[in-house]
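wait is this the right file?? whatever heres the structure
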């Protein structure tokens, strides 16, 4: 068994937010635009490639989605993708997983300090939290884009140091979350419901949950 934490640190995509509900329309809009302007002329890469890259930093994502393209093409894809994600977010695209807002409210009311640590861009992470009404529930939102960290391990370490946290749970769905938790001596709760990774994605987690709704019982 593991102790009750003073804080919980959540990944955003695939943990709190159903990323594909925003990502897929923004992804296709990106390549439609690139086809129109002539900056990319091949067929749109399979959307499952980018879905499989969730949790990575954006430069690595585009290297995998466009392995044969030059850096200029990748940068253009990145620029358009970020623009369309924010635009579609403002239009109401994207959903939290069932029960997320209610459960976060309950955890906060019980005295747990709540944080987000995401490899996404600052505007995206803060935009999702703002548009979905959960910003007030968190003490702070940390993103690789804002803090220019090279890994989630470093991002979580920064968060722990700044907020003087000694005992926390790292809650996430990707291997980067598991690594960030273990290397910072945290209890790792693996979220096994997004379906983005393979079966080994959450190896090393102290426990796996099949829905976000399991978290309060696990804490209790």
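ok assuming it is, sequence goes like this
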């Amino acid at each position: 068994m593991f102790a009750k934490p003073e804080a919980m640190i959540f990944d955003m995509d695939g943990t709190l937010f159903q990323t594909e509900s925003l990502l897929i329309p923004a992804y296709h809009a990106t390549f439609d635009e690139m086809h129109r302007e002539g900056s990319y002329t091949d067929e749109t890469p399979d959307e499952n490639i980018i879905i499989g890259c969730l949790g990575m930093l954006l430069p690595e994502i585009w290297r995998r989605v466009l392995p044969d393209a030059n850096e200029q093409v990748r940068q253009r894809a990145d620029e358009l993708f970020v623009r369309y994600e924010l635009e579609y977010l403002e239009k109401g695209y994207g959903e939290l997983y069932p029960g997320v807002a209610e459960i976060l409210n309950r955890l906060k009311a019980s005295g747990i300090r709540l944080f987000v640590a995401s490899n996404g861009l600052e505007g995206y992470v803060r935009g999702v939290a703002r548009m979905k009404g959960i910003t007030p529930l968190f003490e702070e939102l940390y993103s690789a884009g804002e803090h220019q960290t090279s890994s989630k391990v470093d991002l979580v370490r920064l968060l722990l140091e700044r907020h003087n946290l000694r005992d926390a749970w790292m809650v996430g769905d990707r291997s980067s979350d598991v690594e960030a938790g273990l290397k910072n001596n945290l209890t790792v709760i693996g979220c096994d419901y997004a379906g983005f990774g393979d079966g080994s994605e959450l190896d090393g987690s102290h426990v796996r949950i099949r829905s976000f709704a399991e978290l309060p019982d696990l804490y209790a």
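The chain has a mean pLDDT of 93. so i think its the right one actually
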